[in-house]
Each structure stands twice: as C-alpha cells, then as structure tokens.
Batch of 3 targets.
Target 1
Amino acid sequence: MTTKEKIISKAIDLYNEQGFANITSRDIAKELKISHGNLEYHYQNKETLLAAIYMCMKDEVSSYFAEIDQSQDPFVQFDTYLRRLEPFQTKYLFFNLDVLEISRKYPAIKEKLDATILLRKEQMTHFFNLFDESGYLQPEPSKEYYTRLQHKIRVLITFWVSQEAVLQNFHPGQHISMTISIWDLLLPHLTEKGKRQYKNVSQALTPVLK
C-alpha cells in the first residue's frame, strides 16, 4: 500500500469513528506515525484529501454498474446493485452523515457531487426503463409518477445511514435493510409478471408477497 493509500484509508477510519469535522490532518499524521509535512506533501489540505476520497467513492460505485451482468434479468441486476451499495454506505459512513456540511464548505466537491447525482439519476432511469420493457411495471398512475419514484429511491439511498442514526428505535428488534425498503417502494407498482419475478430473486429478503 502506498503512502497516499495509507493516508486515505486512515482518514476514512478516523472520519467514520469521530466525525469529519473533528479530525485534522495532524490527527491523521499522528495515527500513521508520519510527519504532518509528509502528509501535506501528498495532500495539501483537508479539501484535497476529501476530494481524493470522493473520487474513490465515485469509482467504486461506478464499478458496481460496470460489473453487472447485463444479460441477467433487470430485477437481478437491480437487486445486485442495491446489495453492493449497503456495505458501501457503511464504508464511507462519514460522507453520508456529513454530506450537507461538506457540500456547503467545499464548493469544488459540491460541483463533483452534483455531476455524480446527474449520473446516478441516469442510471436509475436506465433500470426503470428495463423494468418497463420487461413488463414488470403497471401503467404509470399519473404523469411523471415513476420519475418521482426514482427520485424518492435516490433520496432514500443518499440519506439511508442518516435516518438509521436518528431513528434507531423506529422498529425495535428488527433491522430493516436499505435494499428491502427500496423494494417496498416498488412492490405496489409491479404487474403480476413483475411480482412473480420479484419472488424469484428475493428468497433472501424479508417481505414475502402473497
């Protein structure tokens, strides 16, 4: 592992443990047992380090799409993607918890984030187009309804770990995963064909269609 990679890895660990705002570059250097000057040689300031971490995040999620087997059923593709996202959310916990403050404080990173949001929007639309082409979705109940549903799903993905931190006792004794929650949003809008296919790919999920 290179020094840059060690810095990124340790920064993520510390940001997750103590919060992004509470960790300085000196804290990271101390934990790595390197000089502050050595760290600044690789990452001039906190913003450049955060930008490097964000590029790792972006590349990692993009790889999920690249690795999806396009020959598989759309529901299999979508479920695979969602399940890959869950550990990702935990891996970069700090960013998901502090995304609003990060966007406000670092305009250059907000610009990158805005571009990524547009890309994720296109990718979500791609999934919905596949669902529709496969006959899995009921006719749209109102104009642009499914566009709004896609937006709700993306909001849920973005703020999933935040709501888990705030609503810890929402459902005592039962962990509700992000994947299950997203399928819950989709289920009422599936055709009979869509419901049958959902059953085929959801054996490990908690909700069971009757």
Target 2
Amino acid sequence: MRGKTHCAVGIITGIQLSLIFSQPIIPTTIVSSAVFSTLPDLDKSNSIISGIILKKNFSKFLYKLILFFLDIAIFLVSIKISSSFFISAFITFFTIIFLEKKITHYNMRKALITGTLFLLSIILFLAKVNLSFIIPFIIFSIFPWLRHRNFSHSFFMVIIVYLIMKPISILIDYEFLAFLSSFMYLLHIICDMFTRQGVAIFYPFSKNMISLGYIKVGGKFSNIIENLIILILFIVTIHLMLKFL
C-alpha cells in the first residue's frame, strides 16, 4: 500500500476502534493512528513517515552542500601533495567520483533520519523527560538501516510497540493508547501482506516473505482497490457514529 493509504486507513480505523470501545476521539487518537499506521515504513527512506521527520528536498540540499565542501577539501589537500593544478584537479575529480558511489544521498538520508531521532532522544533525556518517552525514539532510530519489510514488518515488532507504549499510556492516563498503537502497527503489516512483495511477518524466526495477494503498489489496479477500501471504511465509520454517538 501507498503511505497515504496506510495513513488514511489508520486514522479511519482508529476512529472506528474508539467508537466500538467507547473511547474518546481526541487529537492523541488521530495522531497516534496516523503515526503508527505508517511507522513500519520508516525502514524506507522515501516513505511518508521518513518525509515527516526529514524533508527530502532538505536532505538533497545537505547532500549537495557536503559534496561541495568535500570537493574543496580534497582539492586543497591535493594541492599540498602536488603544486600542479592539473594533477590536483585530476586527483580531486576521481576521488569525488569514488566518494559519490559510497556517500549516496540514500545512505546519507538514512543517517540523517537516524541522527534526528537519536538527537531528539538526547534532548528529551537532558530535559529530564520520563525514560518511557525516550526509549521509542532510540528504538525507531535504527529502522532506516533495516531491510525493508523484515523486522519492522513482523509480529515481534508489534509486541515491542505494545510494550513500549504501555508505560506511556499509563503516564498520560490514556491506557487505550497501547492497544491502539500496536493495532495500527499490525494493520499496516496486514495490509502489506496483500501486495506481491509480502512481508517477513515471522522475522527473525523466518525470513520468508508472506504474501496473500498480487497487488502491485502504485499500480492502477492497486490505487483503485486502495481508494475503494478507504471509501468502504469511511462509510462504516459514518454508520458507527450514527450508532454510538
């Protein structure tokens, strides 16, 4: 599924669950539903959740800026090695070609996303925020380096989400949050199981990708199905509102 579909399905389902379990529909409900229904895709640097943490245009700007200063630094070092301008330019040219193969925008973006989340955890720690709020940032900071749809898309990770959100839900006096967050996370995984790629749902015990469908993400048929699902869920939500409110 596309990221925006995961987000829409998550928010609508979060509202439905709140109605069914007689829970208040508050901003925390909407935000947590949106975040945890897209969070598994943090293992993909161009996903919606990654874009919220770090805008792609900004990371591209930083990438070009870093390469620019590397060009200058390498040229200055090469001038020290050889006073010949042409030799220095030759060394700089081939060194940059080598570095650009290693320091790609994709890898640098992953590092920046990880660094941003880890920096937030440090700031929260220095601000003496309860450790329960810091642990999630530390755990999710490693997601960008995971193989797509493996550990992040497993039942094991759903359990971890519940365990890290449970103390937070108690602290903010909204115990429904732990269940809501883990359910939204699981919902994302279930939705992805209906795509061609599938998910390694039993990871780390099994790396086999489990697929229950043949939907191609981004394809015309897939987009129609996704929009249809959102429409059906929206109609069900209206029905539940009329029934419970």
Target 3
Amino acid sequence: MNQKYTNTIPNEYYFNLYTQTFICLETAFENKKFQPYIYKHNIAGKMKWQLENDFKMISGYRCQKATIRFRGRNYIAWFAPKIPLPYGPWKLNGLPGLILEAYDDTKEVYFSANQITIPFDDTQEKLKKPTAVKEIAFKAFIEKRKQESENVIKSIQARLPKGSKTVSTNVERKGLELTYEWEKK
C-alpha cells in the first residue's frame, strides 16, 4: 500500500508584545505523520539591521531598504516608516516601520504584503496565539528535525540491495533557517 504524507498544518508565528517572545507552531515528521509542536524563543531586539539609503513604493507607501544576515541567509527588507510598527513576516522584525516586502539575496525566500487595511478592526479574530499538543525547546525542535532527516536516509539505505555501497554525506539543510546561534564557531 502506498501512503502519501503531506503537511496540512500550516506554520504559525505569534509575537507576544509583553514578553517580546516569539511563539512558533511548526511541525516535525514523527511516527509516520506530521506532529505539531510549539517552541518559544526571544530574538526580538537582537536583529541588527543595516538601514540603506534606497527607497521604493509598495502599495502606496514609501519604503526604505534594510539588510541583515539572519540564520544563514542575507535578507533584504523594505519597510514603511509611515506605519511605525516594528513587525514583519515570519520572524523578521525590529525595523522602525512595518516590513511590506522581504527576501533573501538568492530570492529563494520571498515575503510580500498583498493588502494593507488601516484601521484593522478584526484583530481578535485574525491574531490568535498558536496552540499545539506538545511544547518543546527551540533547540530540541531543531534537533528533532535533524533526526527526522537522518531517519529518512537510514530508511533509504536499509532498502538498498545487499552489497550496495553508498557514499555518506551531510544533508544540506533547507528552509528559512540554515544556521543557528549555537552552531557558530
């Protein structure tokens, strides 16, 4: 019997203004299905953006360019100083205006606001703290994901014909975060 595994649980990112903590809902493949996990971490205020003297219009707002190296990627962000909220997509934050567009320098990752409505009256319905069955430390979650990749490789190797030789290499990490603070040398 063939089984298809899909991740139907969308990632969610919630920023707690009072504790300055990100609460993130992401999934890891475990026991032949995707399991939701929540992890918390504090990167607010730690993002060291470089403001540039470049500007462009996005959705009727004059946006300024900013750059940062974050978790293995070089990001370019365009923020609107006229919307003085230090937030943006995913975990990108800390600029003196709302980030309306952000991407990495390879354009493998791209975020863009598709609509801006001010004032926004429906915040209680739209901004809900993510919930999941299991809470886990951020580093433990990343290690779980790493183990998941290693298990896939072992499973493939176990199915190879007897006498097959394989070359073992490190699997290149994909996704938004390519490196983590504890991995720096």
